[in-house]
Write a structure and sequence with these properties.
391 residues, alpha/beta, Rossmann fold, 9-stranded mixed sheet, 6-stranded parallel sheet, 18 strands, globular
């Protein structure tokens, strides 16, 4: 039976499934198309979406009916196929066509395609008009140069996180790392942190490389100069062996070993955990030596720093990294096509790295979705595993 996975927006531990009508019974308005959601990835990144649901408008992408007020649909990345075409549907879309993009944890989704071209389209539904267009796009797999049928699971699980990491790396390099000599990553076992650590390690290993790999430089025409920055991973003690084995961190520390770092070393803190106590500890340890504090994720969702908590911290005030802002900047400097080419090539270069350690677990049905969600919410997911699910 079709269903929607709903989360209590005030208590993320509370979940339930709301029954949905059969796809053939869903009324379609002019211009609308019904997509069957085939599969989606569920990671700690999606827990971050829920944790920042109000602050970052994540609940607004797939709103619930008025009767479900107080509940929300967590966005995920996944694949869908065109199942039904409504009246006056845009020309060029074919039944059965495979798409990739931002989806709800549901059996199906109604979209209103606008700007349809060879690469894809945007969902022009009224409720998405004020949301960032990056998340409203659906890509046509057959025309996507980065799509590999055999790598769909890795694409869902890691590509969105890798792109965020690529943009963070590009932002920091564009700022000459603000004079820092090391970058400290919390939640170092997370896929976003690993992706960023990999990019930073590439800068250490390669003194210069064309932009098609890493893509730095204000004019987009020069070569990438590898700055002398070290990468420090902070992680739970239970994950330290795994994080060390990844081979992209210069030093791996458990959270209680933070004090062993030299407080006088100019540093950048990239916070994937969102843990308020840890953030304070980093700021107090480095003080004026902390060149930049970047807030990215909330894997420690139950210990998030409250809004405005950064105002009284020593050193720089934490700044939220918003990937679409860096996309807008680089699109203006390089052009959208060039930016997409560079990011796409970087992803294809990175993709083989995942084969060495990531194990994909696939499951179908409400029981599996609930179990995986609860495990990730409680921090019980294993860092070397990735979950691909469907309803």
């Amino acid at each position: 039976m079709p269903s929607d996975f709903l989360v209590n927006t005030s208590d993320l531990k509370q979940t339930r499934f709301a029954p949905a009508p059969a796809p053939e019974d869903v009324p379609l308005q002019p211009g609308e198309v019904l997509l069957r959601i085939e599969q989606f990835a569920l990671t700690s990144n999606n827990i971050t979406y829920a944790a920042f649901g109000e602050a970052m408008n994540y609940w607004k992408f797939f709103p619930v009916p008025p009767a479900e007020r107080g509940w929300g649909r967590i966005p995920v990345w996944g694949f869908a196929t065109v199942a039904r075409l409504g009246p006056q549907a845009p020309e060029g879309l074919a039944l059965g066509e495979r798409l990739y993009g931002y989806l709800p944890m549901s059996s199906w989704l109604v979209v209103k395609p606008v700007g349809v071209n060879a690469q894809g389209f945007s969902d022009g539904a009224a409720h998405r008009a004020g949301l960032h267009p990056v998340y409203n796009q659906l890509r046509r797999c057959a025309a996507d140069p980065t799509w590999r049928p055999e790598a769909e699971a890795r694409q869902m699980l890691v590509q969105p996180l890798f792109m965020t990491a690529w943009l963070i790396d590009d932002f920091l390099a564009d700022q000459a790392f603000l004079g820092a000599r090391q970058v400290i990553l919390s939640s170092a076992s997370s896929k976003t942190a690993y992706s960023l650590a990999h990019q930073l390690k590439m800068r250490q290993r390669i003194k210069s490389r064309p932009h098609t790999l890493l893509g730095s430089g204000a004019d987009g025409q020069g070569t990438l100069q590898a700055p002398a920055v070290r990468t420090i991973g902070l992680t739970a003690q239970a994950n330290a062996v795994f994080v060390n084995a990844l081979g992209c961190y210069d030093r791996v520390l458990s959270y209680d070993e933070l004090a062993t770092l030299d407080p006088k070393t100019p540093s950048v803190y990239v916070d994937m955990a969102g843990n308020g106590a840890l953030r304070r500890a980093v700021h107090e340890h480095f003080g004026a030596s902390l060149a930049y504090s970047c807030s990215v994720g909330g894997t420690h969702w139950d210990a998030l720093a409250p809004a405005g908590a950064g105002q009284d911290l020593p050193g720089p005030r934490p700044a939220l990294f918003f990937a679409p802002a860096q996309i807008k900047k680089r699109s203006g400097e390089w052009g959208g096509a060039v930016l997409q080419q560079r990011m796409g090539q970087a992803w294809l270069d990175f993709l083989p790295q995942l084969e060495d350690w990531m194990h994909v677990l696939s499951a179908r049905g409400e029981v599996a979705v609930r179990q995986v969600y609860q495990a990730l919410l409680l921090g019980q997911g294993k860092p070397d595993q990735g979950y691909v699910l469907s309803l």
